[in-house]
Amino acid sequence: MKKPSFKRIVLIIWLMLILPVFATWILIAQPGITKNSPSKLTLDSARLKAHVVKLSEGYVPRSYKNTANLDRCAEYIRAHFQKAGADTATQEFTVRGKRYQNVKVKCMIALEMIGYFSSEPGSQLYPIPVLKIFYPGKGNSIAVIGRLDQRKIVRKIKRLMQGATDLPVYSVNAPLLVTGIDYSDHRSYWQHGNDAVMITDTAFYRNLEYHTPNDTAERLNYELMAKTVIQVFEAVKGLAEEELPDARN
To answer: Is residue 12's pLDDT more than 90?
Structure first.
């Protein structure tokens, strides 16, 4: 029996090493070539900054101990939605998280930090070093985050956002043991069986002043934040126009 050549052995070893990495990339990052058409919407970044300054500096402190400021924020947001012509409604919750109106949720989108960007090499960090193989080292993109069993809805939202503006969009599907994957309001929806994703600039994996007194409105990039808002709008519009009988894989 003819022995395999050295080149053949090297090729086999190379395939054994590269195929698991490739499979992991497909599973987690969901690379795709399809994307949405460029959006016709425009957004005044100065107005966006004014909203951020008002909410972050005008109604503080706010917490479960300062509910009056929470109510003022809610009313401020509601008034601007109504001024723009949007229908608004207040959704009440009991302490156990049950909805009074029993509204069926197609998908909940949590916006967890969408305004901090950096083009400096090495400005983007990751919870697991191996992710640097699949994702950029500069913090000048936005990400759609979901669980491993939410590949379909994450892929759909990513596709609707990509191409709407020129801001790069990446996605991550990962298990809950990855630090930060459930660090926002979408977690509560997961607990009640709803599909929910997080759209984020990756928070403390990019913004080293996250949740500190130095994390001020002046540090945000409102032009790129405006592009993110447009992308989210196009994603919401796209989801509203499509039926999602089963958003999971």
So the answer is: no
Q: Give the Cα separation of 57 and 138 in Å (integer).
A: 29
pTM: 0.85
In the chain the domains, ranked by start, together with CATH numbers, are 28-40+104-241 (3.40.630.10)
- In the structure encoding, which two tokens stand for residue 82, read together? 């109504």
- Cα separation, 121 vs 123, in Å, equals 6
pLDDT given for residue 159 in this prediction: 96
Sign of torsion, CA 170 176 182 188?
positive
Average pLDDT over residues 176-191: 92
